[in-house]
Automatic annotation (TrEMBL):
Subcellular location: Cytoplasmic vesicle, Secretory vesicle, Acrosome
Main function: Assembles a suppression complex (suppresome) by tethering SIRT1 and MDM2 to regulate composite modifications of p53/TP53. Confers both deacetylation-mediated functional inactivation, by SIRT1, and ubiquitination-dependent degradation, by MDM2, of p53/TP53, promoting a proliferative and cell survival behaviors. May play a role in the regulation of spermatogenesis.
InterPro entries: MORN, MORN3
PANTHER family: MORN REPEAT-CONTAINING PROTEIN 3
Lineage: Eukaryota, Metazoa, Chordata, Craniata, Vertebrata
Name the record gives this protein: MORN repeat-containing protein 3
Entry's Gene Ontology cellular component terms: acrosomal vesicle
Originating organism: Zalophus californianus
């Protein structure tokens, strides 16, 4: 009795090529049409895991974590520096969904940088900013601007402690004029002090004290009218 053999169907060539083209695991240099280059781990044809991306047009370099094709996790972003002759670190910290999110440090210049919290590529949360002129702001941020409670220390030693809104002094606060030995406590609107009191503060230790101390004024209020008005003002401010 003759034996018949079933011929196995051969797989189309394109399936084999497609399988070989699938990027999974560690790959060496993979170039895009734009000549951008990526070296690192892949999953289902997407950058996933540890990897380094180089954007040729801007010369930017990202080294760190990836998740399904996006920067996600801890990573460092650098740009070329002609003076140094090597990449200069611009940001080092956490990313989420291809944006700076979480704690990170951003360098804006040789002597100007921010360290603190980020959300969606913007400084938001707690952070400390070192400015090139020597000033330091430490406190709350929202949408890249000081917003909430914060302290600004100036290069000459003076400092402001209080409320901020949209990057400006807004609300109650205290300004220590340590160079002159005075303290102003009051209320600000868009960086302008609207009302408050000024007293001597550390005048004997101040490098440039005022010529005369602030005289103490005794207010006579036998009927308690002023005291009652102040109490009503404080209650209104709290509400």
């Amino acid at each position: 009795m003759p034996i018949s053999k079933c011929l196995q169907k051969s797989e189309p060539l394109w399936k084999g090529w497609d399988r070989k083209a699938q990027k999974n695991g560690l790959r060496h240099q993979v170039y895009a049409v734009s000549d951008d280059c990526y070296v690192g781990e892949w999953k289902d044809n997407m950058k996933h895991g540890k990897g380094t991306q180089i954007w040729k047009k801007k010369g930017a370099i990202y080294e760190g974590d990836w998740k399904f094709g996006k920067r996600d996790g801890y990573g460092t972003l650098s740009f070329p520096d002609q003076e140094m002759g090597k990449p200069r670190k611009v940001y080092s910290g956490w990313w989420k969904d291809d944006k700076k999110s979480g704690y990170g440090i951003q360098f804006f210049g040789p002597k100007e940088y921010y360290e603190g919290e980020w959300c969606g590529n913007q400084r938001s949360g707690w952070g400390r900013m070192y400015y090139s002129n020597g000033d330091i702001y430490e406190g709350q941020w929202l949408n890249n601007k000081p917003h909430g409670e914060g302290m600004l220390r100036q290069k000459n030693g003076n400092r402001y402690e209080g409320c901020w809104r949209r990057g400006m002094k807004n609300g109650s606060g205290r300004f220590f004029h340590l160079d002159h030995g005075q303290l102003f406590e009051g209320f600000w609107v868009d960086d302008v002090a609207k009302c408050g009191t000024m007293i001597d503060f550390g005048r004997d230790e101040a490098p440039e004290p005022t010529q005369f101390p602030i005289p103490k004024i005794k207010i006579l209020d036998p009927d308690g009218v002023l005291e009652e008005a102040l109490a009503m003002f404080k209650k209104t401010e709290e509400d």
